Amino acid sequence: MIFRSSIIIILMLIASSSPLASQDNKLQEDKDDAMEELMSGNLTLRFYNAIDGKEIPNSSVDVDGIGKYTTDDAGKIRFPAPDDDGTYPFTFRADGFITSEFQFEIMAGALFVRRFSVSPQMDLRHVRIVLDWGSEPRDLDAHFVKENGYHISYRDMRTSADGNGNLDRDDRDGYGPETITVKEVSKDATYRLYVHDYSDRNDLSSTKLSNSRAVVRVFGEGKLLRTFVVPAKGKGTRWEAFTIQNGIIVPTNTINAR
Fold first, then answer.
1. CB neighbours (10 Å) of residue 129?
2. CATH number, position 82
3. How far apart (Å, rounded) are the C-alpha atoms in residues 138 and 147?
4. pTM of the entire structure?
5. Count: domains in the chain
6. How far apart are CA 47 and CA 71, in angstroms?
7. pLDDT tens digits, residue range 226-249?
8. 29 with 158: CB under 8 angstroms?
9. Residue 18 domain flag
């Protein structure tokens, strides 16, 4: 009887750590936030560690013109919805994390994106690329390529050949974050960052990547450097977000079928 109970406990632990269980938890959070929005009129923002995907409690979130809030144990804040649609900037601060200037968008009285992944502090020379998205597609892959050098991704190489880059976190159950850290970006090299819709890789005319609400954020020099939002109304499974040329981030922001 004890042996059988032990098997049941082990199976429960395996299930709770599976991608499906994680996906279910994230979907439930979305449902809870939507219900809160409907019942009380309060909006929810959630904050996660870009390296391990865990919630960030006890952080300060200062929303311009609305108020200052502290995240709870689940890494979230709730606040009254403003009267007008539009884009609202806010500042995130937490011990051990890069202070970041974000913004959220309200459309038809609802939040367009409510989940934000924040980079822990790092060497000022390092660059960290963070991909967030919605519940679908489940598996988006970030690819960071150094021309005539390396290719960092889950499918190709988790760590670059020269040890300068690493895939910190791969996410296969929706939302993200998927994170790549590069220790050194040479001014003599060209780099590119693209996102591949692995879930729909066989449907080159798919619009799911375009509808994924994907956002790529680039952290470096102790701050949030750039933010890229997936183009709307695009067909294809590959989003070319940006290149780095002569040490400068150059937007590309196109979707194609490759």
1. 30
2. 2.60.40.180
3. 28
4. 0.89
5. 2
6. 8
7. 999 999 999 999 999 999 999 999
8. no
9. no
